[in-house]
Amino acid sequence: MSELIYLDNSATTFPKPAVVYDFMCDFYRKHGVNPGRSGFDAALETEEVIMNTRKMLTKLFNGTDYNRLTFSYNATDSLNIIIQGLALQGDHVVTTKLEHNSVLRPLYHLEQDNRIEVTRVPFDSHGYVDPEDIRKAIRSNTKFVIVNHCSNVIGTIQAVEEIGKICREAGVYFVVDGSQSAGAVPVDMKKMNIDVFVFTGHKCLMGPTGIGGSYVMENVSIKQTRFGGTGVRSAQKTHLDEYPYRLECGTLNLVGVAGLNAGVNWILEQGIEKMHEREIMLWNRLRTGVQGLDNVTTYCAESPINKNPVLSLNIKGFDSGDVGTMLDVDYNIACRTGLQCAPLVHEVLGTDKIHGTVRLSIGPFNSIEHIDAAVNAISEISGISK
């Protein structure tokens, strides 16, 4: 079997840097104990790694208080905590049609329960939301605007700084889903006027699955929706109000935090902008290679500007799932097909009627040889469609 060509990095980056695997294993062997509950050395050292990781991520996102960097299972978990903690009875929420189901579904459920109203702003033919459409959608009872920083389907990076300015002027909270942007592009919460930034560890931050979180600015009031142990002031009947305990319950995913720590250190050593520049170079090679082929359609891929290295395509005459199977079985290329958990994107593109797209997403361990092999494979498959 030839080497696996992994082009599904938007789902999760793979492989991870060797230092991530090594640090997780070493950490768990030596420090796999409960932090913040005891005063022995191993517990204190475990707490130090957790605190250090909070500090690194706070600095990465340009937050101000590392205690307001809280951990969860993943971005979906944090988005549920944030959305359900912010949206109160009678509130209005503005979002976009670029969103992942981790945003769409919590909002749908709140709508279904007649708790909130939601406006979903469209995106243009190039894959971008016009910030002025956000401004027009804001009402007197709008509680917050929630936007996908980078699309997991078409890779477009939204104008979050401009949207954030509009939200600040309107006096509404601005929540950003950074699942695809954290670790991929610079994030400055102060400059971008972001009130809540949500991230996951297993994508561009190069950590393992099962770890994510959010950073909440001081001006934001989030109602608690989960309660439990904190290891602090156990005699208190109600859950603690202060951060990080306010949004954290029970024992953290310790080995996940350790892996995230190592992953963040690794991307900082490599340089986020340098990594992004290289991946976009590979994306552009892939884009130009397949756009010259007969029977191949790409979506919102006119330019590498304001893009993450994600390319969605279809081959005339083939279901996207069948193309994915052929890439896997015949060429040992891993990709993602279907609706990619973002159904409204495909409704706008019209690809919902043809079972979505074939998504190829590039990561730091991909090479020019991988890209050329993918172009060759798509060329051969598109030749069959003739």
Care to describe what's here?
The chain is an alpha/beta fold and 386 residues long. It folds into two domains: 5-16 and 271-384, Aspartate Aminotransferase, domain 1, CATH 3.90.1150.10; 18-269, Type I PLP-dependent aspartate aminotransferase-like (Major domain) (Aspartate Aminotransferase, domain 2, 3-Layer(aba) Sandwich), CATH 3.40.640. The protein has helices at 18-31, 41-61, 75-86, 101-112, 131-137, 160-170, 254-270, 272-291, 320-331, 343-349, 368-384, and strands spanning 5-6, 69-72, 91-96, 116-121, 142-148, 173-177, 196-200, 212-216, 296-298, 310-315, 333-334, 336-338, 357-361. Helix 4 (101-112) links the parallel strand 3 (91-96) and strand 4. Helix 5 (131-137) packs parallel to helix 6 and helix 9 (320-331) packs across helix 11.
